[in-house]
Design goal:
The protein has 338 residues and is of the alpha/beta class. It has nine helices and 18 strands. The longest helix is centred in the N-terminal third of the chain and has 14 residues.
Length: 338
Amino acid sequence: MKKLMILSTGGTIACTQTAEGLIPTLSADDILAYVPEAKRLGQIETRTILNLDSSNIQPEEWRLIAGAIFECLPEYDGIVVLHGTDTMAYTASMLSFMLRNVDKPVVITGSQLPVGHPQTDAKMNLRDAMITAASAIAGVFVVFDHEIILGCRVAKVRTTSQNAFESINRSPVGRVRLGRVRLIAPPEAPQGAPALDDAIEPNVFLLKLIPGTRPEVFDDIARLGYRGVVIEGFGLGGLHCLRRNLLEGIQKLLDANVAVVLTTQCRYEPSDPAVYETGRLALELGILQAYDMTSECTVTKLMWVLAHASAPEDVRRMLYTSYCGEISLPCCGQADHE
């Protein structure tokens, strides 16, 4: 029987109703008590490391969670992390970079309804997560509504439905059906020994453009000390340079050695700013592009990269390196158009 650790960080799965609304109050043991049949799935131990609404989980908590997981890896066959859904995709992406060459399943799950709710999805998701954690697939995953999704490719796409998460620009790793893991597109096997690399630069800003965004916004971003900016542009990665010329503000950021990455506001399919003049002009300045990474992954990867690189050429090289299956570069294998 596999030895599994359940680490609880709070979230809806741990919530109870109070006069102030839903608040995480339940421990990992409390949650497990709602799913007594789970004890048949492995030799289970639990630890409550946080009890937070996931909206309150920030870079400091990412380091704590990564450290707790890494500490457990030598002793357990698989790790389940209970987490709120609202920032689960950010945490899953960041853990994918912090936990290098993880050689066991690290499975993140939660629920859309509290575990004590009569229509909760918590019990199903916890069972599926434990089944996945007891499997042989190595990596960081989100398991939700029977889907197994690579942690660096996941996004929350629905606010209340049980199928809240989808795999973006990649097939799901697999599905849990009838108590078994059915693989569809397993990740590559890890290369090298597991390592904890939790150095990050949290000063990264995500900006979603709207028609008429003023270039002065970049002055404020620089003034606040941000070292990186991810810009969600229009369509393939367009931005306006007529009247309110955003290129002028971007140039100031680049001159100040602030890394700027351009992505798309669309959930699916990659960015390609070089198709249109407006995007090509941005690339000529030296802006980077996210290709098919999710916004959540782009933000967290840039935080991780900026803790390891400062020279623009090193930032570019690391951003365009796939560490955990998070990015697909053009077929030529190079980041072109730049």
